[in-house]
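Sequence, structure tokens passed on for absentees:
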Amino acid sequence: MGRKPIYTRVYNQLRYQILSGELAIGSPLPPERKLAAQLGVSRNTVVRAYAELEAEGFIASRMGSGRYVEALPPAPRIRRIDWNSQHGYESLAASPSHMAELLEVTDRCPNPINFAHGDGGKHTLASSRFSDYVKATAEELPSYYFTSVQGLPQLRELLVEWMGMEQISSPEQVTITSGSQEGLYLITTLLARPGNCIVTEMPTYFGSLQLFQSLGLQIVPVPLDADGMRIDVLEGVLARCRPRFLYTVPTYHNPTGRTLSLERRKRLLALSERYGIPIVEDDAYRHLHLAEEPPPPLKALDETGSVIYLNTFSKLLFPGLRIGWVAASRPFVRLLTRLKELSITTNTLGQLAVAAFLRDGALLPHLTDARRQYAEQAAIMERHLERLRPLGIRWERPAGGFYFWLSLPEEINPRRLMTLCREQGVLIACGDMFLLREAEQPYIRLCFTHERPEQIDRGMAIIARLLHEQKELMT
């Protein structure tokens, strides 16, 4: 395998910094000679890297003042199909299909060791006894008919009690959705139009990126550090553009596992109020802490009604339920419900089963037991990761959620590793799935909650072997 030209390393480094938000829109780039001196390369190398970035629209020159980071144009939207044409169907592939790809692989691959999916695994189903509630509900005649478009009234009442936030005091402030993805789609459709810009931390949940890109939105990335979204960078971004909303996973972030500190939560809310920008808070992982509880939700600190709260039972219970909810001001929820009317309602059987589960007080014991199991699974996976430290593997211990976010050594290609793992029956997620574009970057995501301990041992042994083999090939 031939060595790549030096300029591609410079190009890839700058490209990743732009895609991750480390170089925010409007940021000036160093002059060619200065960057060449910093990186220890020739000026021509930097000139060529800049030219490639400029050709792709990542940066632009301004007469007399140098080069600056540009806002990326929206990805192509899914377009109408000309049914009389024999071609053009490729327009349906306007944005990445990571979710479809992962689901297809698990359907096609018999009994994979699955570190790619973000869910609690089948082993928590038996201990939860939730299937008993489904069976009992299935015996009730109302479970086979429509319920309110806004959602089962008793479930919405129970959710208000479960959330325990003074900002959400009435079931009229809650709409039940088909998982949080439908909730995010409805919210986005109400708040933004094609060509509008929105802000999100980067990397972020690929389902949100796929949705935003399919709707033709311009996505402005903001980087994270150990305390969550970089609010200082966000403030600079807001000074340059006025996004329609900000989407964030502030607690046990997907994919990095990081949590926005309390101090930054307060600063984020202050910025939201100052610039008049709503915040969409995706709080799917809040109750999945492995030790101490996280800071309060943004919605619980919201004094102006600017936070739209999004959650789902896909993480608390099981993904196939497809039951989530949106909680916000009454006027916004009324609009959301009118839009949801187009899809009629959410499955009644699941809503009734979840309502019975909540009414009996069964959710908290289930979560207590699940968190105990997840902590054990995380510890097992981390023991395997510790043995890989000599290879240059780095990670942060998650305080909650489902994931380890691994930094690989420079010579290991994450996409190549993902392919090799798949061939050996192990599924992992490549880090650039959580970026705006496919990019050379050093990360993979491993879910520690989906598999039982013995499968974690088997899967991690395969990953370790492949990492050693790839390391040897590159030395």
Notes: The domain at 98-125+365-473 is CATH 3.90.1150.10 (Aspartate Aminotransferase, domain 1). The first strand starts at residue 59 and ends at 62. DSSP finds 17 helices and 15 strands in the chain. The two ends are 12 Å apart (CA to CA).
